[in-house]
Structure prediction request, 161 residues.
Amino acid sequence: MKTVPAAEPIAESDLRERALATMQLARFPILSTVDGPWPRARPVSPVLTEGFVVYVANLKRYHKTQELAANPRAELCYFAENHHQVRISGLAGEERDPELIRSIWAANPLLRKYLGEIDNPDWNLYRITPCRVRYMEEWALIYHEVPLEEPTGQEVDQPVP
Prediction:
């Protein structure tokens, strides 16, 4: 019978750095949303990551637009080749800061090529603000709570599982 890898102790002060490094290795997370009674998941390509705040460009015709409008709770799962994971549970909201949108637009040639103009009405930008971040190394089956540096200002009426 195979044994489960033993979880190595991780100092709380190292969790943030390890989680961010895993996010760099696993560049294309899976975004999970809720569609009525059903979970939905799809790979996404973040256009900007600031710590654990993740920005995702979106075409408004995609179904996740309606899902996030009905329920902004979302989870991003980063899974690296070394089997380390980062799970960001948070709230998704449409980013409206014009300076931030312009800087993301300027830094992403694929957005410009695909959408043509920054004021294209077919796209929007989601900011996923973390309420909870968990980190796991390999298949140790133990999640570590990653402390958030600053309160997110996001209120959740139910605990994030």
